[in-house]
Amino acid sequence: YLDCKGTQKQRTTKTISLIRDCVEGHCVSGIGHNYNGNINITKSGRVCQHWSHSFPHPIFREFNASEPGSILQENFCRNPDKSPEGPWCFTKDPAVQKETCLVPKCGENFVPATVAPEVVKSTVYLTNYGVDYTGDLSVTWGGHTCLQWSLPQVKALSKDKEFIPEVQLIGNKCRNPGNDPEGPWCYVEISGNITVDYCDLELCDDPLLKQEEGTETEGRERSVLAPAKKLFFSPRTFGEGESNCGLRPLFEMKGIKDGKEQELLESYREQRIVGGDDAEVASAPWQVMLY
To answer: 29, 70, 75, 211: which has the fewest Cβ within 10 Å?
Structure first.
C-alpha cells in the first residue's frame, strides 16, 4: 500500500481505482515490489527466463521460485529484491543475465515492449584455439557467470599455470591464456567450489590431411597424387587415428619383419597367447595394452 503511494494521494474515485490496481499488482506506482502482472519481455525485447529454470542462468543461487506463496511465477517480470529500477527478470540471452522490464505504470498509458527480432549472426570461428580472442563473452556453456580474473581465489588457482603473457585477463571475460585446445574458458563458482568452465565459442578445425603434391618435372606442372581426405572427427579432440584407418601396419609398409613373428604364427595352431613375450611396436594391425 505504501509502495503504491496510498497515503499520499487524495481520496477520489479515480485515485482509489488506481491504488486498488496497484495493490493488486496490475500496475506499478513506485518500485513495483508487489507487481503481479504477466509481462515477460524486457525493455530491450529479450524474453525472460523461467524463474524455476537453471539455464542459461542458474537462478536458484539467488532465488527459490518453489517456495510456497512465491511471487516468482512462470517467467513474468518481478522485483523480488526491491530494485529501485522496478520489475526485472533473468533473460534467455546467455550474454545478458538480468534486465529491467517495461511494465504498466498506474494512471499512465502503456505500450508493451515487443520481442526483438532475432539477429542472424554469421558464426565466427576462432583460430589458434581462441588464444587471440578479445571479445566480451563472460558466460560459459553451462550458463555460469565468469568470475573476475583479479579475484584472490582465481589468482591463487592460476599461480602455477603457464599462461601466455600477451593474453590480457580483463574483467571476467572468457580467455584462453594457456593455449587450451578446447578454447576460451574462465573460472566459475559452482556449489561453493571454484572450477573451470568453457565458453560457447566456435573454434576452427585443425587442418586435416594436406594434399600430397608430386614433384615438378620438366615440361609439366606440379600434380596432385591424391585428393585431400576429409575426416569425420577432429584430430584436435580425437587424435590422428582416423587418418590411419584402413592402412596396412607400418611394419608391412616398410617391409620389416618382427623378430618373433614366426613364433607368433606358430602359436596360433595351439594357443592364443605367446608365452608372455613383449611384441615389437607396430608389429600387428592392432595391439591391446593391459595396465
So the answer is: 211
b/e 106-143 (16+ beta carbons within 10 angstroms → b): beeeeeebeeeeeeeeeeeebeebbbebeeebbbbebb
Same domain (yes/no): 62, 79: yes
Report how far apart, in Å, the C-alpha atoms of 110 and of each of 24, 39, 118, 121, 170 are.
17, 12, 24, 32, 41
- Whether 82 and 153 share a structural domain: no
What does pTM read for this prediction? Answer: 0.42
Domain count, the chain: 4
* Together in a domain, 47 and 150: no
What is the SS3 assignment for 67? coil
- Residue finishing a domain among 179, 204, 229: 204
Question: Which tens digits make up the pLDDT trace of 29-88?
Answer: 778 888 888 899 999 899 999 999 888 888 988 898 888 888 898 999 999 999 999 999
Q: Where are the beta strands (DSSP E) in the chain?
A: 88-90, 98-100, 125-126, 185-190, 193-198, 202-203, 212-213, 224-226
Confidence of residue 235 (pLDDT cuts 50, 70, 90): low
Interacting residues of 155 by C-beta distance below 8 A, sequence separation 6+? 149
Structural domain span for residue 291? 248-291
Tell me the pLDDT tens digit for each residue of 158-171: 888 889 988 999 89
pLDDT of 1 higher than 70: no
Asked if 24 and 36 count as a contact pair (C-beta separation under 8 A), the reply is yes
Residues 113 and 2 in one domain: yes
